[in-house]
Write a structure and sequence with these properties.
The protein is α+β, with helices and mostly antiparallel strands. It contains five helices and eight strands, in the order ααββαβββααβββ. Helix 4 (124-131) packs across helix 5 (146-153).
């Protein structure tokens, strides 16, 4: 067992309930905010990794020129954004570096929520192995960034368009409800290409978390 696998939080997260698909059939900012405190789980064979979501960003269509849906339209690559909610949208940012989104939008629209940072709860030994980090590596820096968390959890293009509601390999579980006073909002990170939407407060964080990307 890893350093946190005996903790109350790690045991609690493994008993979390699945989320109804309707949860994701709403505007991306609303979903992004309410995902804070929920659990993201990856299961590969006998390996199980779980982290608490502490940072998200919302991306929509229309005037949101920071989103793939608006910038590129509907293509083979971006088609998941226009499809069934609750499915994953995994895209590459560099060679062997990926970002994980869960599709969320109202009927007839497009959008998703980017998972930016996690608090590692279960399977930390596997995370360390995936990242090639020593046992004494700072836990705060394991999953504090979208590409880093994908590498730590072993998420790549093979988990694109995975059902995160009813799936068995990549899914989200109900977690701790985070009160409004503990939630912070900022502009989204690393979107210099956006003009209209660059200052939108669509990044959501648990303010007192030590596992944020910044």
């Amino acid at each position: 067992m890893s350093w946190s696998d005996n903790s109350l939080s790690s045991i609690k997260c493994l008993k979390g309930e699945r989320i109804a698909r309707e949860f994701f059939r709403r505007d991306p900012p609303q979903v992004a905010r309410e995902l804070l405190g929920y659990y993201l789980a990856v299961k590969k064979g006998r390996r199980m990794i779980v982290g608490k979501i502490v940072e998200t960003e919302a991306y929509a269509d229309g005037d949101d020129d920071a989103s793939h849906a608006t910038r590129f339209g509907k293509t083979k690559r971006t088609s998941p954004l226009f499809g069934k909610v609750g499915f994953s949208y995994v895209y590459s940012v560099y060679i062997n570096s990926y970002c994980l989104n869960v599709v969320a939008h109202r009927k007839g629209r497009a959008g998703a929520v980017l998972i930016r940072a996690l608090e590692p709860l279960y399977g930390v030994d596997f995370i360390l192995e995936n990242l090639r980090r020593p046992k004494d590596y700072d836990r705060r820096r394991l999953l504090n960034g979208p590409a880093k968390l994908c590498k730590g959890l072993g998420i790549d293009k093979n988990l694109n368009q995975e059902d995160m509601v009813d799936g068995k390999r990549l899914f989200i579980l109900k977690g701790e409800k985070v009160s409004s006073r503990k939630i912070g909002t900022t502009a989204r990170i690393n979107i210099p290409y956006a003009e209209r939407a660059k200052d939108w407060l669509w990044r959501f964080i648990i303010k007192d978390s030590i596992y944020l990307s910044r």
